[in-house]
Each structure stands twice: as structure tokens, then as C-alpha cells.
Amino acid sequence: MAELNALQNTLGIKFRDISLLERSLVHRSYLNENQDIESVSNERLEYLGDAVLGFIVAEKLYKDFPDYDEGRMTRLRSVLVRRETLARISRSINLGEYLFLGKGEDISGGRNKSANLASALEAVIAAVYLDQGIVKTRKMIIKLVGEEWQKAIKKPAVIDYKSRLQELVQSREQKIPSYQVTGTSGPDHIKTFSVEVRLGDQVLGSGSGKSKKEAETEAAREALAKLS
Question: What pairs with residue 202 in β-bridges?
């Protein structure tokens, strides 16, 4: 594992409490294989970092683009904070080199797994926030997402709303949303389908389209906008 001084230099942050940075890099597998070590995994920090990152990105979108409506800002934020984007940012700063991993996780390529990298980056963001406050955290985040920001603004990525919704719901509820056709209208050759996406008995969103797939996508998009 690389020295944390190098990571601090990359982030532009000098920690007052270096244990926060260390904790942000501890994967659960490391503790499972080192039960004598008094530490905790980075999962609680990941939870906080996700919220801090979402807020900073939303704030910047709101301030930089006063003519964007809620839907457009929500779509851009989704692109900027999703797992794939965070993993690319993590790779650009070699974050995987600093992770505390169990031997099995390390051997299986854990230092390059998108899930591990995205989670660690969110945890690092939380560590910086707790140690340095919101001003320095904002500055660091804007620097880190700079390249991804420009790509998203110039050429917004096509979002797979159904996959994004499933990922979000599973992370919160450990369940998978389902889609139900609630009605059709129009003649057979130009039918319009209406669909609801549900989590149990709860309706998360609804949509309509010229095919079931299109209607499901619209329902997922509406659900994401409500839940994000």
C-alpha cells in the first residue's frame, strides 16, 4: 500500500487527524481477515460522503446553470455521481493503491473494482469534510470532477434509467423494483403503453411510451428524479 502523504498531496489536503483518512480507505474484507485490529470499515464514511458529494454537485449545477430546469440538473447530477464516474476519478488519482484490503479481495483485483473505488472516494470525501470543513471539501471535489464535469456538460451521457434506479433502490432497500403495465390506449399499430415501477406496494414512478420498454424507461426516470 502506498504512503498516505502522496495521497494527501494529490488531494491538496493536509489532514489534522490522519486516522480519518486511514479509516476512509479500510474495506470490510481487511477487517474480516484482521479481527485483532481495532478499526471500522469505511462504510459509514461512504454514506456521509455520498450526501456531501451530491450536495456539492447539485449546488454547482444550480449556481452555474440558472437556465437549467430540475430535470436537466437531476440528469447531469446522476451522471456525475454514479459509480462508473467515481471509479474513473479514483483511477485517475490511483486511489486503489491506498486501499486496505483483505488478501482475498486484493488477489481478486479489488484495487481496480469500480464498486470499491467509488465507495472509497465517497469515504475520502467524508473524511475531508469532517477534518477540513465544507469550503475545502468543495474546492477538492470541484477539482476532482473537473474533467468529468466538462464531458457531462458538453456531451451529456445517455443514462440507463432502469439500471440506475435498480442500483439506487438495491443500495437502500436490498430489493429490486418491478414494472407493471397499467393500461394501453390507441389502435394496435400506434399503441401507447402506461407503466408503473413499484417497490412492493409503493409506486415509485409512472410513465408512458410507444412500447413497454419506452414506458418503463420513463417510469424509471420519474422514480429517479423523486428519489435522487
Answer: 199
Q: Which of 135, 132, 137, 113 is nearest to 53 (CA)?
A: 137
Instruction: Indicate if the pLDDT at residue 109 is higher than 70.
Output: yes
Give the E-state strand segments of 16-123 in sequence order.
none
Task: Using the structure block, give the residue that is written with the C-alpha cell 474513473.
Answer: 88
DSSP 94-118: TGGGG-B--HHHHHTTGGG-HHHHH
| Catalytic machinery residues | 50, 122
Domains in the chain with CATH codes: 1-154 (1.10.1520.10), 161-227 (3.30.160.20)
Backbone angles phi, psi at 168, to 5 degrees: -65, -45
Output the pLDDT for position 203: 95
pLDDT of residue 156: 52
pTM, two decimal places: 0.68
